[in-house]
């Protein structure tokens, strides 16, 4: 089998407006610090609202990568988080044409070593190509990806509700709505919930109190079994993070995600050792070397690699082996629920005890997918369709452009 073509598909169709939940009214999770003078507690940045058509739909677009072979098997990866996908993927397309798609390890090294020092865009492109190659291999053998990785060790994955933009209004959380939401998702079977910070170092002691009030509300509404996760979006300092952790330690936090920039390797490790609350990181790490650096710095907690960003299936396997050997905990970052479900299923629950589902985003994120994955009874069911489960639902594609690289 040989690779004959690499293409970028840009698809477009209409989606019910009610599925577009992260709109201007609800805002978005990004409370990225605007500058040091303004402080780290900037409010969530609202998304630009989509225009609702007279029929109650919004225009939805997505980007997919396809890799074709001379035996008629096509690999698919997407939707891609690469607006300039053609430019990002083109160098790797030239490298893999004419190659055997089963040679994933060799082709991965060829792509990465050609980059020398790949950044986020390059690693996302490498990831997409690698995923498409694994998709070809699995489809050629008529197997789901988890079979290619050793088979299921979990058939149903416990899932937490990643609560993007929930109950957040005018720069603050409505704690009554927070409590109602937690009770509702607990009743649906979700094992926990994750919330985005709305306060930072510039808010001082009031910010610490507000964070404690949010966590206390979640714990009281969810009960003792509800797992609480807080996403800091790399927006705090060491001192402020330690102050908040000391204040909320009695609420049994499952993890505090990325309080510092991941590039602050030594400081992150020092905070991990000093904090009474378990930390997590990983979605912004770009390969096994990055994970190893954090482990060597003393970091121990929850690791969150994203197969679509960290180097694809080939590198995720290496990362998972590294983390398993050092007895870490893994919760894959959920940019692609179908793919992450396939990968997570191949590992035992002591390594991967929990999965992420972004409740306000995944319906639209999976709109063009043939095999979308949704929680039922607080778990994600592991599908058995051949491949990586990223195929396009052609019935939803109304317009498209295809660029061969």
What does this 3D model show about the protein?
It is a single chain. The protein folds into 2 domains: 3-35 and 50-142 and 396-404, Enolase-like, N-terminal domain (Enolase-like, domain 1), CATH 3.30.390; 147-381, Alpha-Beta Barrel (TIM Barrel), CATH 3.20.20. It is α/β, with parallel strands linked by helices and 405 residues long. The protein has helices spanning 85-96, 104-115, 120-140, 145-148, 175-188, 204-222, 238-248, 265-274, 288-296, 312-325, 337-345, 362-365, and strands at residues 3-16, 57-69, 74-77, 156-162, 168-169, 172-173, 192-196, 227-231, 253-257, 279-281, 302-303, 329-330, 355-358, 375-376, 379-381, 399-404. Helices cover 34% and strands 20% of the residues. The strands form 3 sheets. Strands 4, 7, 8, 9, 10, 11, 12, 13, 14 and 15 form a 10-stranded mixed β-sheet that branches. The chain has a 4-stranded antiparallel β-sheet with strand order 3-2-1-16. Strands 5-6 form a two-stranded antiparallel ribbon. The longest helix has 21 residues, at 120-140.
Low-confidence stretches: 23-47
What distance lies between the first and last C-alpha atoms, to the nearest angstrom? 19 Å
In round numbers, the mean pLDDT is 91
- Structural class computed from helices and strand pairing: alpha/beta
Q: Which fold name corresponds to the CATH topology of the largest domain?
A: TIM Barrel
The total of helices stands at 12
- Using the 3D structure, state the CATH architecture of the largest domain: Alpha-Beta Barrel
- Into which percentage range does the β-strand content fall? 15-25%
Gross geometry: globular
- For the record, what is the CATH homologous superfamily label of the largest domain? Enolase-like C-terminal domain
Per DSSP E runs of 2 or more residues, the count of β-strands stands at: 16
């Amino acid at each position: 089998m040989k690779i004959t073509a690499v293409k970028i598909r840009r698809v477009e169709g209409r989606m019910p407006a009610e599925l577009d939940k992260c709109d201007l009214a609800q805002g978005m999770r990004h409370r990225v610090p605007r500058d040091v003078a303004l402080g780290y507690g900037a409010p969530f940045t609202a998304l630009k609202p989509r225009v609702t058509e007279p029929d109650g739909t919004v225009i939805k677009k997505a980007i997919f990568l396809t890799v074709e072979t001379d035996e008629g098997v096509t690999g698919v990866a997407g939707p891609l988080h690469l607006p300039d996908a053609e430019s990002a993927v083109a160098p790797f397309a030239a490298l893999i044409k004419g190659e055997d798609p089963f040679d994933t390890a060799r082709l991965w090294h060829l792509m990465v070593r050609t980059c020398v020092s790949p950044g986020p865009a390059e690693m996302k492109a490498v990831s997409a190509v690698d995923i498409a190659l694994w998709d070809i291999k699995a489809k050629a053998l008529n197997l789901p990806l988890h079979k290619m990785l050793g088979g299921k060790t979990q058939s149903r994955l416990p899932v937490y509700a990643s609560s993007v933009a929930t109950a957040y209004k005018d720069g603050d959380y409505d704690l009554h709505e927070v409590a109602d939401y937690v009770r509702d998702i607990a009743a649906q079977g979700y094992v926990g919930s994750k919330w985005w910070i709305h306060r930072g170092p510039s808010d001082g002691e009031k910010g610490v109190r507000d964070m404690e009030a949010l966590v206390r509300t979640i714990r009281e509404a969810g009960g003792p079994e509800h797992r609480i996760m807080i996403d800091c979006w790399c927006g705090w300092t060491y001192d402020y993070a330690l102050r908040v952790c000391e204040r909320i330690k009695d609420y049994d936090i499952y993890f505090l995600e990325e309080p510092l920039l991941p590039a602050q390797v030594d400081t992150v490790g020092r905070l991990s050792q000093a904090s009474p609350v378990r930390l997590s990181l990983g979605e912004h790490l770009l390969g096994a070397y990055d994970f190893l650096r954090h482990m060597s710095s003393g970091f121990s907690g929850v690791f969150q690699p994203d197969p679509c960003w960290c180097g694809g299936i080939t590198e995720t396997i290496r990362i998972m082996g590294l983390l398993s050997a050092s007895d870490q905990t893994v919760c894959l970052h959920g940019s692609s629920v179908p793919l992450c479900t396939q990968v997570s299923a191949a590992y035992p629950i002591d390594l991967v005890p929990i999965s992420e589902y972004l409740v306000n985003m995944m319906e639209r994120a999976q709109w063009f997918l043939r095999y979308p994955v949704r929680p039922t009874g607080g778990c994600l069911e592991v599908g058995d369709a051949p491949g990586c489960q990223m195929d396009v639902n052609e019935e939803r594609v109304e317009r498209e452009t295809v660029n061969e690289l």
